[in-house]
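Tokens for chain A. Residues wanted.
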């Protein structure tokens, strides 16, 4: 098979949660353990950092990888989902896994992948770990796919575990309240291994503390230790922060840190990232300069896309992958701080989210461009438009995300803002 044929086989042969949803979800690690045993457990051949959380884990993972890269470490990065190219999921020093490596892995192990009836995600995790071992990386930043306890990535023994935050998402699989979801996320906490919690939240704090105590693992709440103070107004390039660390009182820790991830919600992620790096400096040769350089270059070093990303300047168009109630709340806060005359909102969502909850949060005064992302899991544009109307939102339906986006650009007058969002897959079609 060539690369395209290989991808077609992967997408069609193996269940892929991002495309079809619940039918692809497996609530155990048995198949992952089997395939990794068959591959002689490549995950034990490199050091790692494990990142879980409802929102912010992608930004956190890419940022840590960029800093390690600047520090001279050969750095693997495993994330999901991809936006444009499957190979975005598996990178070394920012470079995507070559097409021929994908083809070769499938060719060499196709019989075993079929025999074990692996999900798409299980197979991708195995491919990533096998590739990282082959390339003799120094460290891998591993992002959890969903949850934590039963996620296929939860077979590593990391140097540090990180849980960014908890909110209601994937409730069918992870639980119906913050404490239940936190229990699943806390499953990545390993014995005698420090864990960073990004946000202190009433519904999850005690769960994390209890699990850390049971595992005899040091626990650090980033937002109680680090304060990130923004020094400039939003630009279209970067924000500047001074970082303070609490030692009874707050002392200056890092000055004039330039961070090109523009959403104000990144302030929470930044505290998590800095707290993680502060602990990792005990195990790796990471200097203040590496941190400043790595975070300023996170986009160029890692290829991160879709986080309050400017995709057009005249008219101004921004894309963001916020896709659950907590993510949309952050988008709303950012929109409220953004100057524009009229908002043109290109919207599509997937069918297993809290659609009504999301729609109730969206700004009523915007003009909406309803569409469906090109995946089976996408919500029908007719259903979306009907539900949006019930929520007091008005707009037109379009046959595709690209058509909706083009119409929004054409309709936007000077000073207007075009926003594209609702899911990763909406953003994937325009970035």
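Reply:
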């Amino acid at each position: 098979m060539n690369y395209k044929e290989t991808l077609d086989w992967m997408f069609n042969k193996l269940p892929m949660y991002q495309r079809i949803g619940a039918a692809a979800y497996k609530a155990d690690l048995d198949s992952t353990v089997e395939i990794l045993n068959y591959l002689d457990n490549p995950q034990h051949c490199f050091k790692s950092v494990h990142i879980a959380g409802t929102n912010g884990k992608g930004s956190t993972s890419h940022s840590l990888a960029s800093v390690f890269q600047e520090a001279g470490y050969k750095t693997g990065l495993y994330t999901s989902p991809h936006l444009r190219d499957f190979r975005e999921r598996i990178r070394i020093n920012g470079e995507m896994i070559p097409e021929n490596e994908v083809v070769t892995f499938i060719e060499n192990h196709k019989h075993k992948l079929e025999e074990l009836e692996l999900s798409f995600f299980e197979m991708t995790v195995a491919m990533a770990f096998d590739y990282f071992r082959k390339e003799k990386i120094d460290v891998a930043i591993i992002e959890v796919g969903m949850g934590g306890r039963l996620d296929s990535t939860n077979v590593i023994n990391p140097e540090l575990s990180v849980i960014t935050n908890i909110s209601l998402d994937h409730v069918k699989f992870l639980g119906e309240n913050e404490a239940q979801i936190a229990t699943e996320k806390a499953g990545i906490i390993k014995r005698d291994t420090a864990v960073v919690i990004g946000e202190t939240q009433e519904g999850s704090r005690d769960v994390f503390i209890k699990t850390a105590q049971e595992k005899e693992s040091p626990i650090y709440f980033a937002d109680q230790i680090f304060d990130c103070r923004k020094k400039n107004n939003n630009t279209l390039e970067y924000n500047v922060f001074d970082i303070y660390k609490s030692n009874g009182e707050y002392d200056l820790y890092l000055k004039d840190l330039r961070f090109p991830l523009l959403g104000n919600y990144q302030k929470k992620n930044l505290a998590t990232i800095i707290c993680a790096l502060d602990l990792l400096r005990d195990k790796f040769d990471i200097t203040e300069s590496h941190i400043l350089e790595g975070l300023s270059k996170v986009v160029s070093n890692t290829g991160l896309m879709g986080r309050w990303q400017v995709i057009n300047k005249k008219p101004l168009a921004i894309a963001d992958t916020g896709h659950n109630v907590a993510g949309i709340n952050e988008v709303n806060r950012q929109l409220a701080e953004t100057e524009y005359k009229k908002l043109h909102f290109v919207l599509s969502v997937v069918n297993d989210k809290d659609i009504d909850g999301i729609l109730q949060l969206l700004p009523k005064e915007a003009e909406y461009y309803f569409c469906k992302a090109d995946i089976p899991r996408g919500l029908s544009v007719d259903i979306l438009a009907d539900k949006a109307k019930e929520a007091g939102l008005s707009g037109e339906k379009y046959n595709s995300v690209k058509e909706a986006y083009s119409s929004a650009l054409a309709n936007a007058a000077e000073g207007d803002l075009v926003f594209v969002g609702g899911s990763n897959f909406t953003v994937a079609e325009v970035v």
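The chain has a mean pLDDT of 91. The first strand starts at residue 47 and ends at 52.
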